Amino acid sequence: xxxxxxxxxxxxxxxxxxxxxxxxxxxxxxxxxxxxxxxxxxxxxxxxxxxxxxxxxxxxxxxxxxxxxxxxxxxxxxxxxxxxxxxxxxxxxxxxxxxxxxxxxxxxxxxxxxxxxxxxxxxxxxxxxxxxxxxxxxxxxxxxxxxxxxxxxxxxxxxxxxxxxxxxxxxxxxxxxxxxxxxxxxxxxxxxxxxxxxxxxxx
Length: 203
Ligand code: GRF
What we know:
The chain is α/β, with parallel strands linked by helices. The protein is built from 6 helices and 10 strands; from the N terminus they run E-H-E-H-E-H-E-H-E-H-E-E-H-E-E-E. Strands 3-2-1-4-5-6-7 form a 7-stranded mixed beta sheet, sandwiched between helices. A 3-stranded antiparallel beta sheet has the order 8-9-10. Helix 1 (12-23) packs across helix 6 (162-185) and helix 5 (120-126) packs across helix 6 (162-185).
């Protein structure tokens, strides 16, 4: 099975997939790591691991749609069975989402539907939440609104800052994301018009 991973930054979730594939936890190979950001640290990590990389810089395109079309063209060359958004920081349009519908996942650092969008940890702290976490979900045109697959919860500790909370959450991200991806690749998890279905059971 072939994975494509989209990143914009350091790529720690991408690294978790590199590790999962090399350890055999995931029966898959990473066919491409694609970034919109030429300075993304994850590009160097992927290259060090011998993984093909590409950079399609969104600044070179005059619309979200033309940028998305360029990414779709590049990704399609690698024929991925699953596309993973991992710290990918651009909003995708249906031009991208539709060709990969049902095989496009994202990880969002909050217990969706709480805190879609940015600055999720600070918002949880400001709200005085006693717990926070992360959600892996199918990607649909609704930003951070696709059917959830797996969530992980962490306690908010006294004195937490957004940084200390993020550091607690990211550990869980690296656990649940490869699990969710494995379910899709094994054909156990599907996106239907009624949401996510795992082993025939709606999630
Ligand atoms: C993480 O908080 C992740 O939840 C979000 O982007 C941040 C950085 O991810 N999607 P990574 O370290 O680049 O994988």
